[in-house]
């Protein structure tokens, strides 16, 4: 039986991720037109509540639920990481690890995750290491054409 890795929804019009991290962690969003959408269940179960049919039909949310039997590359593109800013006092913001990796100081940020989060779960660790390796590959690919031009 597959294991739930992430229980989340993405709301593009608000650039918002609704994520439920533990059982009975009910997170709700009310749209401007008063339609609602909620996620619940943490990593125990995926529960969706609200005006699902209307919102899905209009493409107003994207399912971001991940399970361990999905292809790793898909998980690596979609797995979320939360940050409450450098000072730790800002509201928690969830973004895909892939997005954190491609920020200007992404490599430093990912290395800090590995250094400062000793209890990081296995999948988050694997995905952070995956993106660090991809960033390293990108650096090498950029340097190779420069080195060949100097010959």
Description:
The chain has helices at residues 52-57, 72-78, 97-101, 106-116, 122-149; strands at residues 4-6, 8-11, 16-19, 27-30, 36-40, 47-50, 62-63, 66-67, 80-83, 93-96. The chain is built from 5 helices and 10 strands. The strands form 4 sheets. It has a 3-stranded antiparallel β-sheet with strand order 3-2-7, with no helix packed on it. A 3-stranded antiparallel β-sheet has the order 4-5-6, with no helix packed on it. Helix 4 (106-116) packs antiparallel against helix 5. The termini are far apart. It is globular, with a radius of gyration of 18 Å. The relative contact order is 0.12. It has a domain at 1-70. It is of the alpha+beta class and 151 residues long. The protein is 38% helix and 24% strand. Strand 5 and strand 6 (47-50) form a beta hairpin. The mean pLDDT is 91.
Give a summary of the structure in a few sentences:
The chain has 151 residues and is α+β, with helices and mostly antiparallel strands. It has a domain at 1-70. Helices cover 38% and strands 24% of the residues.
